[in-house]
Amino acid sequence: xxxxxxxxxxxxxxxxxxxxxxxxxxxxxxxxxxxxxxxxxxxxxxxxxxxxxxxxxxxxxxxxxxxxxxxxxxxxxxxxxxxxxxxxxxxxxxxxxxxxxxxxxxxxxxxxxxxxxxxxxxxxxxxxxxxxxxxxxxxxxxxxxxxxxxxxxxxxxxxxxxxxxxxxxxxxxxxxxxxxxxxxxxxxxxxxxxxxxxxxxxxxxxxxxxxxxxxxxxxxxxxxxxxxxxxxxxxxxxxxxxxxxxxxxxxxxxxxxxxxxxxxxxxxxxxxxxxxxxxxxxxxxxxxxxxxxxxxxxxxxxxxxxxxxxxxxxxxxxxxxxxxxxxxxxxxxxxxxxxxxxxxxxxxxxxxxxxxxxxxxxxxxx
Length: 366
Known about the structure:
The chain is an alpha/beta fold. It folds into two domains: 5-175, Rossmann fold; 186-365, Dehydroquinate synthase-like, alpha domain (Up-down Bundle), CATH 1.20.1090.10. It contains 13 helices and eleven strands.
């Protein structure tokens, strides 16, 4: 369709397309061609459903697809067993079989919940991502990570389960609250800092356009992020490369997840916590002698311009370390941090001294 960009996540016979563009929700054919049978269940939430559920479901029904709907409460605090069981209850009561496709319509929470349900219902059913937030369009909808939160740690229970399709309709960003838009920009900035220095420079030049929701700027950022992530996922789908693989995409997340868990899920948005965590990672990288104070200032400035926090939550360094010890990147009891050798080149590092980690946290939480 005119104006639509298509990328590919190359995973052999499990490869799938990412379609990016405006007006895609109404294009039933983009979805129906990926259905094993004309049967789908759309999982959404109480915020997104009134806006976009009918726009997605009606064309599918008109195309002959039997569509059911499951609407969950909205918020990170609902990314739990109770919401997951609501999905199972809906699937079982509707007698959904193994060829039924689950469609996630919403942000990262809905994508993770519906994806985990798809990975585990009848030991695996097809799954399609229709992300409606910037954060989910640039990051969480791509790559097959699914799961729920636990009181002791974020995303500690889940599964890798790749979608059949990612359909990113950029028109849905028009109704996104400012805070959610900023949260998505945190993952955009993260992608650039991890592996795309030219993109980071572009962001410094075009951040005002992104904050103003310029359609061309947003489309470019989404495409660049998805292209980067598709390459990383194709090379290291299950995050087994401990040095240069998918773990690098977790820049800022070890510190950020500590904020989310420590404050209680939903107090800070995921992107807000990642932003503060990325500043902490940059500060620690400076203390290791890898980047300069000027580099750290650029990291802070780009997040500020995106409307994101650059000061961490006042949990106390001891509490940060306790929460970070539950991180999925811990190997043999050692904390493996994602840090910056330079802006645009992230590395994993296990040799950071606890005193340096503490001083970086304290400097960024003052």
